[in-house]
Design a protein that fits this description.
Elements: E1 4-8, E2 11-16, E3 27-30, H1 41-49, E4 54-57, H2 76-90, E5 95-99, H3 101-112, E6 117-121, H4 135-144, H5 153-159, H6 168-174, H7 180-187, E7 202-207, H8 215-225, E8 228-232, H9 244-277
Parallel strand pairs: 3-4, 3-5, 5-6, 6-7, 7-8
Antiparallel strand pairs: 1-2, 2-4
Helix pairs in contact: 2-3, 2-7
Amino acid sequence: MGGVETSLGRIPCRAERPEPQKFAWPILLLPELFTAGSHLAVMLGYLATIGWEVYLPDLRALAGRHGTPPLARMGFDDLLALAGEAFDALKHPAIAIGHGLGGLLALKLAETRSLKAAVALAPLVPGVPNPLITRWAKRSALWLRRPLPPPRGRTLFELVLDVEPFQRPALVQALVADATRAADDVVAGRIRFAAHSELPPRLVIAGEADPFAALDQVIAFANSIGAATVTAKGRGHWLIGGRGLERTVGEAHRFLVRALGEELLLLFSEQWQTREDGGTKD
């Protein structure tokens, strides 16, 4: 797994710091349900190769510790609080990019923190039944107060369909149980999003053939909150699998540069000049 082990406050994470750094603000990566840091490691490294400083926090690491509920009882708001804590530890503005459930966290952070921008890849749609969160598995996990188990059978096959065949075994083996209450919050529609022009730029990238976040529902959700949209042609849910990684990151990168490019380049120019001068400006 790429990157170096570090932490954002009390939250462990992996980080990639490019040399030279081309953009002034870092990216905070937030993963999908059932996925661990290893699933986003390639994306972490790829973003770093094009000049972004990137952090991948492990929001599950504090489950059941320091006043945080156990994993089975962690709700969406608990995950959001931890993501906000990681963001605050950066001590300067940042961009949030998330996949699936992580995409919803990124969009919600745009309402609660001073993000520069947010990008949601194949976000789960609040209030819509989702095969990733089956009714039986969710009810059983809620009743037994256990973490939600990873998908199996056809659902698992559809989750990894866009992954290169040689990568699938490792991806499947690395899947983890996840926050039952947070998953229930999503499908029950308990999460509310604002829609007004004062929010930072937001982009939603949706897979054309996504079985877990249907294109029409994702587009309708994005429109309802005033986010820009891009459709990933021919792609399913896992938008960063195989050759889809370059296309998806390319769309996110273009959006960020167009929305923030002038300010990004201005700040980067000032930072570079400061380093060249060997000091800080008055």
